[in-house]
Structures are given as C-alpha cells and as structure tokens.
Amino acid sequence: MHDADNLNPIPVGLDDGYACTKLALPDGRLLTIPSRARLGTSAVTWIQQAEQRIFEYETEDTVYSVGAVDGEPTHFEGYPWSGQNRAIVQHALQQAGLAGRTVHAVSGLPVSAFYRNNGEHRKDVIAKKRDSLKQAVRPRSSALAAGIAFHEVIPEALAAWYDHVIVEDGEGVTLDADRVAVPIAIVDIGGRTTDYVVVKDQGILHTASGSLQCGMLNVKQRVADGIQARFDLESLSEQLVAQAVETATVRLQGRNYDVEDLVEAAKREVVERIYVETRRQLGLGVELDRVLFVGGGTVALADHIADWFPHQAIAEHPAFANARGMLKYLRYVCEASDAA
Ligand SMILES: Nc1ncnc2c1ncn2[C@@H]1O[C@H](COP(=O)(O)OP(=O)(O)OP(=O)(O)O)[C@@H](O)[C@H]1O
Ligand SMILES: [Mg+2]
Q: Whose C-alpha lies nearest to ligand 1, atom 7?
C-alpha cells in the first residue's frame, strides 16, 4: 500500500442492519455479510489459514469473533453503538479489501430511533451511533485495521429515497427532478424492523412514517420454535435456523428434513403483521405516486407482498437500496468540506 492511499479515503455506504451488514463501494461493488458475532475468542484454530472462517477483532479491550460463529442476538436496544456492531462492521470492511485504508462512511438508524414522533432528531442517539463507529477496532491477526475517519448517520428508509432520486449513469450524476417532485412511500422490510417513510415536497411526513418492530428475524424465531418443538430439541444453533429459513430444510444428525410448512406459516404470520401496519401507515396510498419496497425482507417475502398496491414497485437489488443511497448521500449530498 502507498501512503497516497490514505490521503484518498474510500467513501462507503454502510447499512449495518440487525440481520445483515451491507456495503456499497464507489467501484459499484455491493457486499453483504450476516450481522453475526460472539463475545470472546473462537476456540478454533485453522489447519489451513486460507480456510479461515472465523475472525477475531478487539475493541475497547473486548474480543469478538465474527464469521462462521453461532451468532449472539443483535436485537437489543444498544446494538447500533455496541462493540459487537463495530466488530461486524470492521469484518465487512476487511472482506471488502479495505484493510489499512481510511474510510468515510454514511450509515443509518431505524426511522423511530432517528426521529421523535414530532419529527425532532434524537440527537443523543444519533451522536452515540456516529461516535461508536469512529472508535478503533483491531483485527487480532496481521491484518491492518480499516479506520472510519468521517461518519454521518441518516434514517435508514430515507437512504433508499436518496437512492431512488439520485441517478448515476454513464454520463454522470443527476437529481431526477420528476422523482423528487412526487410524493412517495418507502417500505423497508428488514430483519428487526419494517420502516416507513413518506417523502413529499422534499420533506418527511411524520404522521405516516415510523418503524414496526417486525421483520425477518421474527420469521427466524418462529421457525426455530417450530423446529425445536417438532424434533424435541433443547437448543438449536442460529446458523442452522438461518439455513432452514433459506432452504426450507433442516439438517439434523446427517439427515435433511423438509420444514417448508413451518417456514411458510412463519412468513404468513409476519406478512400479516406488516400488512396491517402498512395499511395503518399508508392506507391505500391514494395520494402517493408510488410505494417503493426495499430491504432483504422484500426479497424473502416477494410472493407474499406482490399485490398490496397497484402502484407499488420493488427497488433494484432491494437489499442494497439503503446502502447505495447512503453512498450517494455521502458523495453528493454531504458537504464536500465535511468529508474532506
Ligand atoms: N437476496 C435475498 N434473498 C432472500 N432473503 C434475503 C436476501 N437478502 C436478504 N435476505 C433476508 O432478509 C432479511 C432482512 O435483510 P436486511 O438486510 O434488509 O435486514 P437488516 O437491514 O439487517 O435489518 P434491519 O433493517 O431491521 O436492521 C435477512 O434475514 C436476510 O436473510
Ligand atoms: Mg435494514
């Protein structure tokens, strides 16, 4: 690496969600890792270094193992500014090849964590998140740390709006005036939360914006409960459950079992809750020009949400809409003087 590299910080869109941590990089790469870590060292040594699948990081004198570990739950209140979060983000930056580099990042908080009901910013929470990711995290290997030197926080679903209205093409970057001019709702179905944001005349309508604490992690929990009951198991690893939700089969004692009925029932239940909240927040959306669905849940639940509004659309690679919007916000909206 050349010294000049560090004079050129890398801008990164960093959507560090409760289920997955997504990065958008200026060269167009999109990268996701599960938000999966454990406190402490891994107690596994790797026979071949190239096969290493668990990585250890240290922050504030605490060691976390990230990667192919049995992940500790992320859905606790302080997760966005925890050491666990910092270790996972550092791992994502390492995976993106940013070891030793200086990074400028924009990340997000759920709408209800970012704003009070009256629309005021929750400044203390925003500052906690902003400062947390600027703290050092050291890989416990020969790898150099990636350092976040500039970090701004925006509401998660609003990031998807920036992605929608700032258009990059071969020619350059434009603000799509037609898209900015019309009222639109963004529905972000994530792991822990489903976020709603209505943007009209470049302002957020707080009466129709907010977060429902329901998402794909609820599906996972339901499926875990179902498998434990059906096979009379005392406990079940988090990775096994994640795989069961993804593939509708569970592998126990060397045999595959079909659990599609459990997965479908869990999805239906979660979809029902999200549907009710969507109608409560948006009604039929008659005054909206479009309802844009984003988030990984939009992919996982695509069949169930296909016909909620006649004017709905699913963003391109919906799981990355927020991360892309965060990168665009960083590059084209954050004042150049701040980021310099
Ligand atoms: N391409 C995909 N296909 C199927 N499922 C997916 C896909 N991408 C993501 N998911 C699933 O969707 C869920 C939600 O993903 P997402 O990345 O939006 O959550 P998150 O942003 O981490 O959560 P939150 O926004 O609540 O913090 C995850 O459990 C993930 O497994
Ligand atoms: Mg999310």
A: 296
pLDDT at 115 over 80: yes
Across 201-289, the runs of DSSP E, i.e. the strands, are 203-204, 210-212, 249-252, 255-258
Atom 4, ligand 1: residue with shortest CA distance: 300
Paired tokens of 5: 């590299």
Tell me the CATH number at 16.
3.30.420.40
Query: Looking at the domain assignment, is residue 24 inside a domain?
Result: yes
Pocket test for ligand 1, best of 77, 216, 322 (most atoms within 8 A of CB): 216
Domain count of the chain?
1
| Alpha carbon distance 103, 94 (integer Å) | 11
pLDDT 10s digits, 161-216? 999 999 998 888 999 999 999 999 999 999 999 999 999 998 899 999 999 999 99
For a ligand 1 pocket test, name from 79, 194, 299, 320 the mutation site with the most ligand atoms within 8 angstroms of its C-beta: 299
Residue 187 pairs in a beta bridge with 196, 293
Contact 195, 282 (CB under 8 A): no
The pTM of the whole model exceeds 0.85: yes
Residue nearest to atom 11 of ligand 1 (CA): 296
